[in-house]
């Protein structure tokens, strides 16, 4: 649905905000771009609706090359792409419903249909009762709901989200993410969101990319990433912390995804190989609709035992990483 | 000399002041209408044609945008730096061309308008620059036309500032209108000139001062009230929003 192909953007000839970035977002999925502040996430997102023009490379949305559009055609392409912002960017001197009507006027909806359609959008995000409130009278979460309703008023196929929950508290963040997830499913939206929080990726994304200093370090469906040995995203998604120094023990980190997570793999290891395994840490979550997680084991004995355990677990389809040997 | 003990003096005074006040209000109102009609778009275009703003390339030409910005900026600065009395004299041919004469209350409106336009354009410029950049971005992301951006985002957001700036503009038009007595314009300035300066009537001077002060106070109070009514981004509502946040968390 969205194809970003070899995009480069340099600011003032010095800061290389995007360096040969290619990303593919499939129709109907929620795709998250993670990275630290200054990694180039906002710049990347803004190339998708041409708020930012790349120096080279192309961006294609639903078969239309937005990087080639100008004038009228560009406005029309933007009607098919909604965007929400970290600080909501609502017109503070106009009411919630007027803010949404603005989006409908932008696509040329007739005066008679405007109000009803705007109210429908407010209803969709659960704010129909606050239609005549000014943004200053709404909570952060409510403001972002208005922002989402405005972005979706023109019935776009794509929603872009620039740190939409970064200004919100954890509870409100969860509610907004759940709303985005629900809307993407109900309306068949393709969502490209950027965030610096792993929790956001964990909660809503099907796929993700890690951006670092303007370059894509890794990308793909979350479950594939979790299964990929040495994936930085998988590590960040399931942090186990620093490995402890344990004399006489070897330490293994296991990664489970999908069906493997439900099998008694560790119990089998203890039973079949007769090893007294200790679990040092574990984290399991539902991501992209499937169970996934990581577990850290301590294996007592000789290095040979540790190798044997690692091989056994590998054969069970579990991702294994030897953190330390005895 | 004038005899303030004569009954005629006091009955004359009322009529003179009433006439002067009405003339001042008339000149100021007409000048204000034209000032807003011309100064408002001028101020918006002045900001918009700056580099990186919403009108940087009108008709797709960046060079044109830059040229418009330079020319308008120059004209506005020129208008602001010429003293009113000099401007008024310099404008005599233009005034005569426009309204057929340059003496009297009606023709005096022309220089009053010309001096107020750059002032008001600057008011608008500052107000528009105060509008949060995120709103321009949001409007752009929605594929809104520039015209819609101006009507639905820039004007409502800049309105409180523009209303307050309008009060300042009115005050300076009234100020300048006191000077048009020199070219035969009427108004309270003319009252002060003919009765105060030429006939040494301190009563007239004091009365003119009191009336002008009252007008300015009324204008300012009205503007403050109106600005408050169009401004919905106050701290009061932010405190209110926090309460709602708390309430939501409880639910
Ligand atoms: N308009 C701009 N002008 C100059 N530099 C910019 C501009 N926008 C972004 N940058 C620079 O590009 C880099 C990436 O910025 P950004 O995309 O905002 O990162 P992120 O959203 O990941 O925090 C930063 O170094 C930032 O300073
Ligand atoms: Mg950013």
Automatic annotation (TrEMBL), chain A:
State a single Pfam family of this protein.
ABC_tran
For the keyword Translocase, the answer is yes
Q: What biological processes does GO assign it?
A: amino acid transport
Listed InterPro entries: AAA+_ATPase, ABC_transporter-like_ATP-bd, ABC_transporter-like_CS, ACT-like_dom_sf, MetN_ABC, MetN_ABC_transporter-like, NIL_domain, P-loop_NTPase
Q: Which keywords accompany this UniProt record?
A: Amino-acid transport, ATP-binding, Cell membrane, Membrane, Nucleotide-binding, Translocase, Transport
Question: Do you know which PROSITE patterns this protein is assigned to?
Answer: ABC_TRANSPORTER_1, ABC_TRANSPORTER_2
GO cellular component terms attached to this protein's record: plasma membrane
Q: Which Gene3D superfamilies does the protein's record reference?
A: 3.30.70.260, P-loop containing nucleotide triphosphate hydrolases
Record text on subunit structure and interactions: Homodimer. Forms a membrane-associated complex with FtsX.
The text of the family note is:
Belongs to the ABC transporter superfamily.
Q: What is this protein called?
A: D-methionine transport system ATP-binding protein
From which source organism is this entry?
A: Agromyces ramosus
Tell me the lineage of the source organism: Bacteria, Bacillati, Actinomycetota, Actinomycetes, Micrococcales
Automatic annotation (TrEMBL), chain B:
The answer to whether UniProt assigns keyword Transmembrane to this entry is yes
Where is it mostly found?
membrane
User: How is this protein positioned relative to the membrane?
Assistant: Multi-pass membrane protein
Instruction: Tell me the SUPFAM superfamilies matching this sequence.
Output: MetI-like
* Location of this chain's protein in the cell: Cell membrane
Write the record's keywords in alphabetical order, separated by commas.
Cell membrane, Membrane, Transmembrane, Transmembrane helix, Transport
Question: Belongs to which family?
Answer: Belongs to the binding-protein-dependent transport system permease family.
Q: Per its record, how is this protein called by name?
A: D-methionine transport system permease protein
Originating species: Agromyces ramosus
